Amino acid sequence: LLITEVIISITLIIQLLTMSMVVSFLEMEDNLRIILLLIVVIPLFIILFSLCIIEVHSGYFECTHCHERFAPSEKDFIMGAHTLTTRYLKCPKCGKKSFCKKRLSK
Fold first, then answer.
1. Over the stretch 69-100, which tens digit does the pLDDT of each residue have?
2. What DSSP state is assigned to residue 92?
3. How far apart are alpha carbons 50 and 54 in whole angstroms?
4. Residue 62 half-sphere exposure toward CB, CA atoms < 13 A
5. Where are the alpha helices (DSSP H) in 1-106?
6. Is the torsion defined by CA of 70, 71, 73, 77 positive or negative?
7. Exposed, middle or buried: residue 2 (CB in 10 Å: 0-12, 13-18, 19+)?
8. Which of 46, 54, 89, 98 has a beta carbon 3.0–4.6 Å from 64's, enabling a disulfide?
9. Which of 79, 106, 105 lies closest to 97, judged by CA?
10. Cα-trace Rg, the chain
């Protein structure tokens, strides 16, 4: 699953950089420039949202206080502050908010 996420992320970055350079440096009408940017940005947000949904359903988070492992809602997952391996979530068992670590098994 991690390899798939990395491949998709690299593909998105290449696509975004390529289209940004095309839109920035080529002479074209403003309407065409806006359309090209939308062609890049709309699929970018759809794919990023899809990756978040995949990520939230691919494991559990462990509370740093009570060590309960739980799966957050999509809203809590997307809105929570995060680092590479943790996400700021509220534990359903103890009710405390903390940076919970990602775990693959329950």
1. 999 998 998 898 988 889 999 999 999 999 99
2. T
3. 6
4. 9
5. 2-25, 30-56, 74-79
6. positive
7. exposed
8. 98
9. 79
10. 18
**By the 8 A CB rule, do 65 and 91 touch?**
yes
pTM: 0.65
Determine the distance from the C-alpha atom of residue 67 to the mean position of all C-alpha atoms in its chain, rounded to a whole number: 24
Total number of residues shown for the chain: 106
- Find where tokens 């068992």 sit: 93
Q: Which pair of structure tokens corresponds to residue 53?
A: 């949904």
User: Left if phi > 0, otherwise alpha if psi is -120 to 50, otherwise beta: which for 100?
Assistant: beta
Residue 47 in tokens: 């794919």
